[in-house]
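Task card 7
Instruction: Convert sequence to structure tokens.
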Amino acid sequence: MIAKLKRIDWNLFTILLVMMGVSIAVIYSATHSTPKFANSTERMIIYYIAGFVVFFVMSMVNYRIWLKYSLYIYGAGLVLLLLVMVIGQTLNNAQGWLSIGGLSLQPAELFKMVLILFLATLLSRKEQLKLLFWRDVTPLIAITFIPFALVMAQNDLGNALSYLIIMMALLWIGNIKYTQAILFTSLAIVMVIVGIRSYVAYHDNIKTYLADIKRDHWMERLDPWLMPDQATEKAIYHTRNAKLAIASGGLSGEGYMKGTSVQSDRVPLTYSDSIFVVVAEEFGFIGAAILLLLYFTLIHRLILVSLECRERAGPYIIIGIVAMLLYQIFENIGMFIGIMPLTGITLPFISFGGTSLVMNMACMGLVMSIRIHNQEDNDEVSVNVTQRYALNK
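Output:
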């Protein structure tokens, strides 16, 4: 145990501690004047304590155990996603929460790590062979599409898209053929262009259809992004006020707990999805840049760990986690500056949310497990080589 603790990347651990401090401070600023959310700061502290416990437990457990049982973990994750559709609670138009012993669990968040583990397990068995489309790529797409469809049915677009990002990142480093990569990229670009043009051209028909299937709130998320001039006041309220708040922050911000828009509740969900707005308005461009620098440093540490791995499963897991984090950071910040559609995606390690935070901390623990147990393997190899050399002499 002591030997394993010594192998933890304490630089990465320090980054997580700093992010905890930032998260708690910003959540307090966003909620201290709102009685409804008055206990959010205390709850976030509890979530972080639980998150660090999970971090250390995951670090000490050999990550190969999770790979060994990844198929069963994947199956259990699908059962939870199906269970949500039957008895799940609805929040912000998404039916994605299970209530267990008074605690809310969001299986769609947990499934990100589940998917990374299962895809990494399958890809690691291919060694360094090129992936064949029907034998290798198609099954991986099917494995990803099943949870994607289930989460889309729960009205959780943000988490559903993260599964596709994870899959694409792992296929890329999994030695997919360049011709296939170019084909998929071209197809994705064409689908996005055609989808946007079709949305604009058939806007009224799409609006009627979505209303019929009770998904009309999707229009409120897409209209401010694609058709801001025609969006309703209700649809544009969130993103417009978020942009105004970010702009008012200027270079150094309006001051801690002095953000005009944040403190007057003109921006919804400032303690969770919109927490970047609090950082930008109260700490300005400098504060936002420092937060992005923290993320850059975190991802840099993760990539360094992946480069130290002697086997392929470790890098697959880490790159899957990096892709997940990059997507969430880009989407969360992008939707408030107008370059991405509004989705219910949290800002990793900063936004309020127990399931999201604990899942991210578990992923960090998984990375530490890869580092610790790969270093143990390296030490064993070094000892064996030294012993053989001594015997030969």
